[in-house]
Amino acid sequence: MNNQTRFNQAPPLPPYYVERPEVSQRLKQILLSQETAKAGTLVVSAIYGLGGIGKSTLAAALAHDEEVQSHFTDGIFWATLGQPPDILSFLSSWIQQLGDYDFKPINIDSASLQLRKLLSDKKALLIVDDVWHPDHVEPFRVPGDGCRILVTTREA
């Protein structure tokens, strides 16, 4: 492998995107920091604020950053939840993206458990965008030591 991300599900940046380095650099530092990744500790970062201020665009910019892509070599996953969220569909899609085409989840819990197994030894970034309720993030809180979760939400 060429030390680049295998795949990146993040949406493209808008043509009018203006970088905000003071924000993106700090968040990138948190995502890439080895110090925050103690064995068995799940690292979840969140971008929150009013609708329309650029949370999703900032997350996409981080997903397209070369250093971030080089770090998360097993992929950058993206799910835009919205209202109402189809959580099982996103989990199933991610499971297939990781190469398990035979698994047929019967519910969110079984899909979350299977995703946990598949990500246990991976280096991946999971971006869960447009979260409206904290409970909606729980099924995505599955990665192993080499993974990170980035959440965008209107709620702190």
The CATH first-level class comes to: Alpha Beta
> CATH superfamily, called what?
P-loop containing nucleotide triphosphate hydrolases
Spatially, the strands of the biggest sheet line up as 1-4-3-2
Structural class: alpha/beta
Q: State the major sheet.
A: 4 strands, parallel
Mean of the pLDDT scores?
89
**Estimated share of beta-strand residues:** 5-15%
Computed CA radius of gyration, to the nearest angstrom:
15 Å
* Count of distinct strands: 4
Intertermini distance: 38 Å
Q: Level of helix content?
A: 25-40%
As for the CATH topology, it is Rossmann fold
Number of helices: 5
Shape: globular
* Helix and strand element order: HEHHEHHEE
Describe this structure in words.
The chain contains 5 helices and 4 strands; from the N terminus they run H-E-H-H-E-H-H-E-E. The chain is of the alpha/beta class and 156 residues long. The chain has a single domain, classed as 3-Layer(aba) Sandwich (Rossmann fold), CATH 3.40.50. The protein is globular and about 40 Å long.
Task: Please give the structural blueprint.
Blueprint: H1 21-32, E1 44-48, H2 55-64, H3 66-71, E2 76-80, H4 87-97, H5 108-119, E3 125-131, E4 148-153
Parallel strand pairs: 1-4, 2-3, 3-4
Helix pairs in contact: 4-5
Question: Gist?
Answer:
The chain is α/β, with parallel strands linked by helices. It has helices at 21-32, 55-64, 66-71, 87-97, 108-119; strands spanning 44-48, 76-80, 125-131, 148-153.
